Amino acid sequence: MRLDRGPGVDPGHAGRGVGRALAAAILERYRERGVRRVRTMVDAAMPEIERFFVGAGFEPDTLRSFVKRLD
Known about the structure:
Elements: H1 18-32, H2 47-55
């Protein structure tokens, strides 16, 4: 299943720091629990999401996604 828009901040509230605040809170909670590495996947068709994660301190990884369609 493919969604046109993934979860995120409502466009009407974009640019107000809501996403950054949520990401910071989530990452801090992980840090408090001893998590040392967080990974996420970003659809290449959504460069704004990639920019968000880069801005949050994420960097490209060596993992690659593979898919096999069964339809």
